[in-house]
Specification:
This protein is mostly helical. Helices cover 63% and strands 8% of the residues. The protein has a two-stranded antiparallel ribbon. Residues 1-22, 45-101 are annotated as: Disordered.
Length: 126
């Protein structure tokens, strides 16, 4: 098989003998108009790109909401700890004594553990 000259392509002739001849690329005939196919392919690609963008936006929004929820939960837990610390300090200052303070501390730990178990995704923060 001979090498193809540069700037030349093979094209079949209209003869039934399937004679192959070498013609310059600029003389090749367009045997099929695939502009509809090209337009359709462009539309499909555009639709796919839009779908990917929507999925990314949705994923980003979901991540943002999860982050906000985690932040709110953390703030709520910190507020509970502050309130509990105030109660413990108040009890320690009162005449009830050391035994009551230890009981309040244990109770605070149980409440915190119960909250973590209510939100398993928060367990990774502890």
């Amino acid at each position: 098989m001979s090498q193809q000259p540069q700037g030349m392509s093979r094209q079949t002739t209209a003869t039934p003998s399937r004679d192959w001849t070498w013609v310059p690329n600029e003389e090749l005939e367009v045997l099929m108009d695939d502009s509809e196919g090209t337009e359709w392919a462009k539309e499909v690609e555009k639709d796919q790109q839009e779908m990917v963008k929507k999925q990314r936006r949705a994923r980003s929004e979901e991540e943002r909401l999860v982050w906000e929820r985690a932040e709110q939960e953390q703030q709520a837990q910190e507020e509970c700890k502050r309130q509990r610390a105030k109660e413990v300090a108040k009890q320690a200052a009162s005449s009830k004594g050391k035994g009551c303070m230890e009981e309040l501390q244990r109770e605070g730990q149980l409440v915190q553990t119960a909250r973590c178990m209510a939100h398993p995704w928060m367990a990774s923060f502890y």
